[in-house]
Automatic annotation (TrEMBL), chains A, B:
PANTHER family in the cross-refs: ASPARTATE-GLUTAMATE RACEMASE FAMILY, GLUTAMATE RACEMASE
The species this protein was found in: Aquincola agrisoli
Family: Belongs to the aspartate/glutamate racemases family.
Isomerase recorded as keyword: yes
Enzyme type, top EC level: isomerase
Enzyme Commission no: 5.1.1.-
Record's protein name: Amino acid racemase
Gene3D superfamilies: 3.40.50.1860
Keywords, alphabetical: Isomerase
One annotated GO molecular function: amino-acid racemase activity
Any coiled-coil regions, as ranges: none
InterPro entries per the UniProt record, alphabetical: Asp/Glu/hydantoin_racemase, Asp/Glu_race, Asp/Glu_racemase_AS_1, Asp_race
NCBIfam families: asp_race
Length: 243, 243
């Protein structure tokens, strides 16, 4: 199979979780100006959910997901993807190993989200972060924050993580969206009470139950930010700008 | 890439249209008993919407979609799929050429839908069919109906096809769901008035706007029927029954 760079085929390394993969694909469609099937962006997806739990691995309580992520990503290489994106925040903890193993360009979800935070909330904003234990404990968001942005991070407390955030994410993964919505909504409310000016949804399960209409403050959806960047990449491949 | 038969990897030849592909993936999730990511079914998807319009080709007014469908399907072969399914009714007009070109087992969407019609509406039922001009004019559903089932088909009139069904499907493909819902709802009402006892949604765009709650009579969703069969295939691969 020849690689699809010319066509701008986006490869989605998905399945983490599978509903978040579908949400990402839907957000790519919504980000594409199209009046017919043929105007939509070409996408190949590897949604292989048999990847070890990323948070458990980070905590040292479970096997590494890396080998399964590489195997899943190779399916995209074989299928002719020209770019790889990964709609799972926590999986980005293995970013440095994954890119060289696949040999394709990738877009980083956290960088896409941070660019939208700065655009929408403004430099110096106080941003509440909802994410998995591993994403928060690894410093994934603060460590990639552009130095000049002055963004200030506000995190859930350890108790809120254990009682609301992690059980809420697990409920979404199990398909129990009402429970997930209630638990994650409590965590969002707590961040708002402590002075967050914007809410960053930094786990791809969270925007499945919290959105701009239901949240107590402006929302930045990392999934949507990555989807918009992926569509822009593909459209640029299709019709390169004249120099 | 080795083929994924052991893992039960379902290959989805999608993009016809892309929103219907997402709907199909979502219906696979809903058909899977799973409490965590890892219990979901592994899926690879080729959603390449740059496939010539199937209805135009059938009418002799456009290029054949076959070469693009084969190229898209080969991405699934390369990605290690063990089975191919195609969430587009009209694309099944090229079924006989596609299977040998890919060399993988496939499940036929129309056969999946017909089995559910017989189960739910009963032998001898009068079934209203909503589908594209090409699906209807080719006799795709009546020609595959099991001889002993006694199903009776009721079709939209030519005027209803031109005024309601085809513009309704085009509106869904363009992302204008309210217009699609209104037009396709009128076509469903007409079939109900003429005595249909059940409604078969025989185009994957139609269940995006018409469902069991909104339809004037019991609904059989061909997309959902195929999704349930694909999940059953994958689960059987994972844990084969003892002989």
């Amino acid at each position: 199979m020849q690689h699809g760079e010319g066509l701008g085929v986006v490869g989605v390394l998905g399945g983490m979780g599978p509903l978040a993969t579908i949400d990402f694909m839907h957000k790519m469609l919504k980000a594409t100006p199209a009046a017919s099937d043929q105007e939509h962006v070409p996408v190949v997806v590897s949604s292989i959910p048999q990847v070890a739990d990323r948070t458990a691995a980070f905590r040292g309580e479970g096997a590494s997901p890396l080998a399964a992520m590489v195997a899943s990503g190779r399916r995209l290489v074989e299928a002719g993807a020209g770019l790889v994106v990964m709609p799972c925040n926590t999986a980005h903890l293995w970013w440095d190993e994954l890119g060289p193993a696949l040999g394709l360009p990738m877009l980083h979800l956290v960088d896409a989200a941070l660019a939208e935070v700065v655009d929408r909330a403004g430099a110096g904003a106080r941003v509440g972060l909802l994410a998995t234990d591993a994403t928060i404990a690894s410093g994934l968001y603060p460590n990639r924050t552009p130095p000049g942005s002055g963004l200030q991070w506000l995190l859930p407390t350890a108790g809120e993580m254990l009682q609301h955030v992690m059980p809420g994410i697990a409920a979404v993964k199990a398909g129990d969206l009402p429970t997930g919505r209630a638990l994650l909504g409590q965590a969002a409310d707590a961040l708002a009470r402590r002075g967050a000016q914007a809410l960053l949804l930094g786990c791809t399960e969270i925007p499945l139950v919290i959105d701009a209409d239901s949240a107590p403050l402006p929302v930045i959806d990392a999934t949507g930010a990555l989807a918009r960047r992926a569509v822009a990449w593909s459209l640029a491949q299709r019709a390169p700008l004249a120099a």
